[in-house]
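Good morning C.,

I know you're traveling, so I'll keep this short. The sequence:
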Amino acid sequence: MAYGDDELAAGAAAPSDLGGAALRLYTLQERPGVRLVGEISPSTRLVWRQALDQLAGRHDHVCFLELSAITFVDVAGASELARTAQALNERRRLVLERPPPELPRILELFWPELRAIEVAA
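The tokens, ready to paste straight into the viewer:
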């Protein structure tokens, strides 16, 4: 699989193709964050964790996760996101742009007091 110029380059961040599922990551050019394409499931968990670790390690007050091309998120993937947000200092936040409908519902159901995540439609 060829990588585009904006796709995260590194062997560890390569797209996951296990079991037919894939998750690809692209850096956002106009703001701090990543665009994800594919699904967040057990077979793509490592790539998802790497994306969240990358965002958590940034020093920006706001980081963006553009999720319009995500077709599925399981509860474990939402849990990883919630744990990442909980570990951020109180002045930082993650903005989820156009997430799949199940993700905000899962976050609200299991982590209703989580303030470090903002959902933008």
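Safe travels,
E.
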